[in-house]
Amino acid sequence: xxxxxxxxxxxxxxxxCLGCHTCSVACKTQWTKTQGREAMxxxxxxxxxxxxxxxGWESMGGGFHDAAAQPGEMPTTGGFGEAxxxxxxxxxxxxxxxxxxxxxxxDAPDWGPNWDEDEGAGDYPNSYHFYLPRLCNHCTHPACVxxxxxxxxxxxxxxxxxxxxxxxxxxxxxxxxxxxxxxxxFNHAKQVSQKCIFCYPRLEQGVATACxxxxxxxxxxxxxxxxxxxxxxxxxxxxxxxxxxHPEYGTQPNVFYVPPTGPMRLGEDGDVDExxxxxxxxxxEHLFGEAGLQALKNLEREKQIVQGGGKSEALDVLIAYxxxxxxxxxxxxxxxxxWV
Length: 340
Hints:
Oligomer: single chain
Strand order of the largest sheet: 10-1-12-11
Largest sheet: 4 strands, mixed
Order of helices and strands: EHEEEHHEHEEHEEHHEHEEHHH
Number of domains: 1
Distance between the termini: 32 Å
CATH architecture: 2-Layer Sandwich
């Protein structure tokens, strides 16, 4: 593990994500509501299959191949989706709410963080989509760290969280090119790169990340990867239900996903067709590699145990009967803390 004694990690169950964006709003209001961060969404929830944010990020390169760093494209602010101006004053403050409707002021945008929301793929009646929340993966071997000539990016020794030292950052943005997940942003006001910090000030006080704590669907689990009593170890290592996104990028991400199962496929007669899944195996493999398909088999195995009258600790963890059990001990109420 590069520069860290322990590693904080996250698991997200894609079968529970509602696409409500509460996680994104929680992050936005906590970290990216100041000048220069208008277009930043450190946490995003995109519809898959889809272009995502920045647009076409999966084909923009970066990461490692055969242990060698790979060059990638520089994402643009437009690719992420710039913050749009709306005619709020006209509609809400000038008494014209009956004559005017809320609309974008200036040039009409052609892309945004959720531009293709809910579109998905496939043909009726077997069209499909699912939601994919994304944030910095706090990789074991971060390409951003390898790319920065200023050594302004490092992994914290105590928890493996990847952070940017803004006092050292000169705004070269090699990190943005190198990150294959394209989850680093550029603050044009401060001329520095910025990204998700895994809410480490909260974690240091025993409080779960904002995106995890606010999730109404109990999608997110977090904790130390080596905590054998915690949810990350059980879902990733013990039961192998959660896998990293695009492992072929070579960065060893520490954000993991329980792949989506999707609804049952329907045949031409309208009856259930169990001969193949609605979400194609090829697409699951595209996102998660062969381990993604194996994770779905492991999930089915646990379901069969329960359907046969047995008990499954793995499913009990995923169901999350008590929210406190989801956060590996980081369950302190933030209202009890005097924040500085």
